[in-house]
Amino acid sequence: MEYHDxxxxxxxxxxxxxxxxxxxxxxxxxxxxxxxxxxxxxPVDMYYVIAKCILVKGRMIHAVxxxxxxxxxxxxxxxxxxxxxxxxxxxxxxxxxxxxxxxxSPGGVREALFGDxxxxxxxxxxxxxxxxxxxxxxxxxxxxxENCREAFRTPRWxxxxxxxxxxxxxxxxxxxxxxxxxxxxxxxxxxxYPPEGATxxxxxxxxxxxxxxxxxxxxxxxxxxxxxxxQRIPWKLKTR
Length: 240
Description:
With 240 residues, this protein is an alpha/beta fold. Helices cover 42% and strands 15% of the residues.
């Protein structure tokens, strides 16, 4: 009874803040899987997804965080409690071999801070997650959250110079603003199973194309903050 009450309470909270999940049934109830997601300015959608998965599936999602976060005093211990790791290929395989769900954003900080309202997928040549999926032989579940770049934004001014500084130092010196009350809808796509004989580069491109397809299907481009806020209003009222 207590668990049911907490579940209902959290569901109400997620509804009030304008968060929904579609396709949660693609996440398995048991067994390992990898979630590959598009990284908004701040991964608030992933926090909500973790909460939703605990409530509905009874499963904790492990995640990979950027290495610079672990250099902040006190954060390493916090991340250990939250099952967030820097994520080497071998450590990720071990997490999956233990039957867990692992979430990775290949775009990481670069995609978060230097993307824009056109929602570019900025993976570069990163294919480490593909190596993990192929070696662990687990399905990859693509994830995209509608309006995730409208909840928080980064300013356009100085972006070129800040990008150069980041590429040389890996310091995320980009200011962030926002906390706009937009409608957030997380979409999970169908699982992608590693093709037999595929290389990490080929599998990475396959997953990337699925993410890009989801963006085109679910996100009205370019992103717009007022429009994303208005999505929270139920325009279509049910009639008897």
